[in-house]
Amino acid sequence: MPATDLTQVVILGASGDLTSRKLVPAVYAAQCQHLLPGRCQLVGVARRPWDDAFFRNHLTQSAPKLEACSYDSWEAFLKQTTYVQTHLDTPDDYRALAKRLDELAGEPANRVFYLAVKPELFLTSVENLHAVGLLDQSAGPWRRVVVEKPFGTDLASARVLNKALLGLIGEDQLYRIDHYLGKETVQNIMVFRFRNAMFEPLWNHKYVELVQITVAETVGMEGGRGGYYDTAGAVRDMLGNHVLQLLSLVAMEPPSRMTQKAIRDEKVKVLQDLRLHTDMPEPAKYIVRGQYDGYRAETGVKPESQTETFIATRAFIDNWRWGGVPFLLRTGKHLPARYTSISVQFRMPPHTLFGSYQECHLRPNTLTLRIQPNEGIDLGFEVKEPGAGITIKPAKLAMDYEDYFHKAIPEAYQRLLQDVITGDQSLFLRSDEVEESWRWADDLLKAMQQTPMQSYAKNSWGPSAANDLFGECEGRWTKG
Ligand SMILES: NC(=O)c1ccc[n+]([C@@H]2O[C@H](COP(=O)([O-])OP(=O)(O)OC[C@H]3O[C@@H](n4cnc5c(N)ncnc54)[C@H](OP(=O)(O)O)[C@@H]3O)[C@@H](O)[C@H]2O)c1
């Protein structure tokens, strides 16, 4: 039995963008749909000298409207919402925070501390919370800490952060978030693979010729992102975390059971076996980096910046299932379409009965998992066009999530926050997963320095050299 059914969700960084756009709507939606296991209070923490009324008004103005819940329930939710002004780099403020949290609860309460602050404050916040006893679980109620991305800036810094945090709290208290894992379509990857026996026998090097994963964005540095992005770039911001999570779910072995340990054990093995295409002598043959025209003039970006806004690479997973199968990974800003998808290209038939393939790059048997937007699954094949003779045309079976289920897909953060409160870490990154991701990303960043930075026009598919990452007759990048 839990010691209490009251949970305080304490958001550090409550006046920020993530809180109003994603976190508060997520807690609210979960609560008003009765998906939380008990009662919930939301406590916002930041430096601004706001009071409860100001904070509530700010949330009403800035949080997106949610159709699933009524105006009355929003008002009721706000009554459970409080603001506590706190300087997170001032240890004394945490004593006042602890006192205020106790007063608000009025009884023993579980607590989630969500670190929606810049990464420089992650460790400081946890050290200070720990120092005043706010992370101590010995009295019964649990204490959990959610850490946003980026978790470190390379392998060395991620190791240091892991070590420091795990010196203060247990791995079971630490929830490293990658919001991609909260997406329904990402969770469906495992269901699709391991519940449908018809695909799993084909899911290996014997039948799969190539896998490509794209996260394409149409946006650039809008909303003042330039300053942060210029210190990160496409590898650190997207490829080394979100794309690797998609890759590990597509490539993992079936876990023996659906426990958080078994799932994370299998995902981490994929990351351990992931390598760059280093058997090619020149990195430019397997890595293409680019920067969109006008990037260096963006606010917050250095005029001589060498930060990549586009990256594409050809990687391999050195294990029995995937030996020799290229994984082509790509992400970029200011591309012509916004979408995330995984395409599994199956090999061609061993013998051509119906004339030759005029365009050898066409791959009719491709399974596409559309992660966002227009979430769904497409399966391509070729059929005979009705009429005399044999004319072959491509066709597809398509499943669209919203059409099929007639309901909106919940936001990723909602599912993840529910999991934090119920104590399920399956969709959060374990320390070894983060470190293995950085190991590979560090190799990529190092090799990337030996490749030229190529410019590309906004609204194009990035440098044309990215097309050469495919071998002859191996297919082409998807286009949304
Ligand atoms: N926004 C997104 O869509 C998004 C997506 C993925 C990950 N993230 C991650 O989420 C975190 C927050 O992002 P954000 O976009 O919400 O940032 P933001 O808009 O800049 O908000 C930062 C928050 O931190 C507070 N803060 C800063 N210094 C503080 C201090 N010393 N003491 C107390 N509070 C302090 C700020 O409030 P005051 O100025 O009032 O103190 C503000 O509430 C970052 O780690 C980011 O990388 C964000």
Notes on the protein architecture:
The protein is of the alpha/beta class. The chain folds into two domains: 6-148, 3-Layer(aba) Sandwich (Rossmann fold); 181-409 and 430-469, Dihydrodipicolinate Reductase, domain 2 (2-Layer Sandwich). Helix content is 33%, strand content 22%. The strands form two sheets. Strands 7, 8, 9, 10, 11, 12, 13, 14, 15 and 16 form a ten-stranded mixed beta sheet that branches. A six-stranded parallel beta sheet has the order 3-2-1-4-5-6, sandwiched between helices. Helix 1 (17-32) links the parallel strand 1 (6-12) and strand 2. The termini are far apart. Bound molecules: NADP nicotinamide-adenine-dinucleotide phosphate. The site of NADP nicotinamide-adenine-dinucleotide phosphate (NAP) has 20 residues, from helix 1.
Q: Which features would summarize this protein structure in a list?
A:
single chain; 480 residues; 12 helices; 2 domains; alpha/beta; Dihydrodipicolinate Reductase, domain 2; 10-stranded mixed sheet; 6-stranded parallel sheet; Rossmann fold; globular; binds NADP nicotinamide-adenine-dinucleotide phosphate; 22% strand
Mean pLDDT over the full residue set? 94
Order of SSEs, N→C?
EHEHHEHEHEHEHEHHEEEEEEEEHHHE
Structural domains: how many: 2
The fourth-level CATH homologous superfamily of the largest domain is Dihydrodipicolinate Reductase, domain 2
Proper CATH architecture of the largest domain: 2-Layer Sandwich
CATH topology of the largest domain: Dihydrodipicolinate Reductase, domain 2
The molecules bound to the chains, other than polymers, are: NADP nicotinamide-adenine-dinucleotide phosphate
CATH class of the largest domain: Alpha Beta
Query: Strand content of the residues, in percent?
Result: 15-25%
Helical fraction: 25-40%
Rg, alpha carbons: 24 Å
Total number of helical segments?
Answer: 12
| Total number of strands | 16
Low-confidence stretches: none
Please identify the oligomeric state: single chain
Described by the principal axes of the CA atoms, the overall outline is: globular
Structural class: alpha/beta
Task: Characterize the main sheet.
Answer: 10 strands, mixed
- Terminal-residue CA separation: 48 Å
